[in-house]
Amino acid sequence: MHSIWAVAKNTIRQALRMKIAAVFIILLLVLLPVMGLITTGDGTLKGRLQTFISYSMSLTSLLLCMFTIIATTFSLTNDIKQKQIFTVLTKPIRRSQLLIGKLLGVTILSSALLALFSVIIYTIVIYTPKFYNASQDELKQVNNEFFTARASLTPTDIDVTDEVNKLYEKLERNGQIPPNTSPRAVKALLTMQKKLEKRAAEVGGELLWEFNNVKPLDPNQSIFVKFKYDVAVNPPDLQIYGRWVIGDYRQIQSGKIETPIRYFDRKDLIRTVYEVEVPADVIAEDGFLAVGFINTTLNDTVVMFPPKDGLEVLYKADTFTANFIRAALLILLRLVFLACFAILASTFLSFPVAILLCLTIFSTATVSTFIVESFDFMSENVSAAYRYTLKPIIQLLPQFDKISPSKFLIHGQLLSWSMLAKVAGIMICIKAALVLMLALLIFTYREIAKVII
Amino acid sequence: MEHAIETFSLTKIFTDWWGRNRVYAVEDLNLKIKYNEVFGLLGPNGSGKTTTLKMLLGLLYPTKGKAAIFGGDGTDPKINARIGFLPEESYLYKYLNARETLDFYGRIFGLPAKVRKMRIETLLDMVGLKTVANRPVGTFSKGMARRIGLAQALINDPDLLILDEPTTGLDPIGTRQIKDLVIQLAKRGKTILLCSHLLADVEDVCDRIAILYGGKIQTEGQVKDLLLQTDKKQININSGSITDITTEKIKRLIKADKAECEITSPMEKLETFFIKTVVAAQQQDKSTSGAVSTTQISDFLASKSIEENILDKLVSAPVSKPTESTTTEKVELLKTTEPQPDKQLLEQLTKPAEPVKTVSADETETTEPQIPELEKNEKNILEQLTDRSASKNDNTEQTDTQTGESGDA
After folding, report:
1. Which residue of A has its CA nearest to B136?
2. Is B91 in contact with A82 (CB distance < 8 Å)?
3. Domains of chain A with CATH codes
4. Is A420 in contact with A323 (CB distance < 8 Å)?
5. Which of A442, B268, B285, B323 could anchor a disulfide with A347, C-beta 3.0 to 4.6 Å?
6. Parts of chain A with a pLDDT under 70
7. ipTM value of the model?
8. Across the interface, which of A7, A88, A93 has its CB nearest the CB of B77?
9. Beta-bridge partners for B160
10. Range of the domain at B339
11. Are residue B141 and residue B178 in the same domain, yes or no?
């Protein structure tokens, strides 16, 4: 352990004294306060805070990721190029200990810098409302929607495979399948239609969503129902008359009313997001909550709720501070993964090539969803080959954009410990561990004194 | 386990990316270096010396054969803990200062803080870098970097010291200090593998040598056996008052024996002259921004009075039996050699009191040139130059022995 610690300490000294860290520290120390002063967002306090936290967290994450990649690759490739490694490896230290020492050093330094900049961002965010001449409504809004950590509940995706298969067979029997169309394409279309039906209410019809395990931080506070209407035919005034029923409907069946069931009628524009505040007392003691929508006869069209942002139930599950700490830890997970990958690249590549590879992986990870979807779309005709070759490799790449820390903070959305643990499990315990094992394997069998051109 | 280092048909072939251009860097090398031996690996550039060292230390893997240090693998941390290695260049972290550099390596060895600190200060003192210990080593001259490189190789009190071109970039005093150090360490039971193409360095300190060329050993053996010229004799006259008449008599005598001779006054070696000049400047307290080339090595290794000095830590093994070839060349040539002349001839030669002359004779059988014996050379050259007293030298000898017996702290 003493040799690992010696290498870690030396790596920290190297990053600090070779002024690698200095560039990033100065940039962030200047940019973060300046951003705090100049960002205005949409002019409201909430907009200002959302813009600042979005830019500052993204910038901090980006620069620290770059720092981690550069510091790690430089540390190892420079040791090999300048041959200091000859002197180190002839001392009683295993090659694996050298790599772990380097990794530890960069991780400690990155964590310290992340902690420093997180404190700066947090301080600016907390003090912004005090320096901003905001109205009471604005303050209430930021408290409800920004300085919070709201858990989000969305309707579960209903499995329609059986229905689709039956419908397909029926259409096939009746000869209604268009020629030159693959069964896969027809079934995909039918699945989309069926899922849409499940989220649509005809005139006079209703939709019911059930949620379990709803546990607000404070039962005396409110929950929020967020929704957006879509329609088959646009109404003349582009508005929908809807009745909402929120509460534990099981009480009606049992006849024993313990928690209130709240009704309210609304008239809202189509394709616009609304957020309705409801007292949290509607939630049953066991955490059950039902939300119902009735498409009133005042309307003349089918009302649908889009799959992505059609309906969402939000409630405060934790504080902003705790959420902010978890968001910072999420960034730390990225840094650890990148440090592991940079170590791997440095075990067999020279500095410029290792940097290039790491930056490519980093860029890919930040747009991974787009890449995965693109490949999925392009490979429709070569599905088998794609599924067994390229897809597993793509799946091995980290997916930074799938869970973005700033996205949670902007909307005051809860980033739970379980979510963080899941990311840590996949990104660190599986992917980073695999990367590190590969690095150890390569480095152990590499001839250190052999010149690589 | 008889040998500290042993190689068995060690071979290294370098190929290009396609596996072509096969170059035999080392070919079928069978090296055996005994414990407590100073072994010199000689050869011109590209002869495979450094490649051999790298294979010994696990920095390169042999294509064929095997290398063993202390009967084990050179990559085993337990073996590494007993080795001190000075690579062909010092390869230091430029952003660390001299003290931090030694601290870093001391930490890798897991030395306790107190021992580490003591060793660092002692080593800095020894290599003459104490005054610049807080300067980044990136700002050091090549010679200064070499000195700190040597210090890092000694921080663990190694049983085996592997030195690759140790005197490269060093001034003559530094070179002499390293040679003295090698001798002192060998006296205390260390095994030393010295790799160099500077023949004078090797000749002065090594017990045995091997000459490599094209990756193969061309010759191997005891230095004195290899260098002894049995067809020539040399007479050294250690007197400043020998007259011209006497020299003429000597010439006649040798001519009578059908041999030729030449009598000249000996020249002082440039190394000696240089050391004298620098020592004189140091005595006048002239400042320098570089390494302080003093008598530190000799004083240091010889001194017993310093509590927990380097001897306690660096050279703790028992004092070995001195051998002829572990001596260094004395600067004052007339004093260093110990001729054993024919008594009769000597009487004839030394009858009149005449000025000093050196006689070298071809095809005569008066005396054989002798490799200097250790006991005669214990007095360090730098001590001689700085007029150290003989009594101190005696004390030094006692110190060495006592330290060797006391063992490591």
Report:
1. A17
2. yes
3. 2-148+319-445 (no CATH), 156-198 (no CATH), 200-318 (2.60.120)
4. no
5. A442
6. 378-386, 451-453
7. 0.76
8. A93
9. B83, B191
10. 232-267+330-362
11. yes
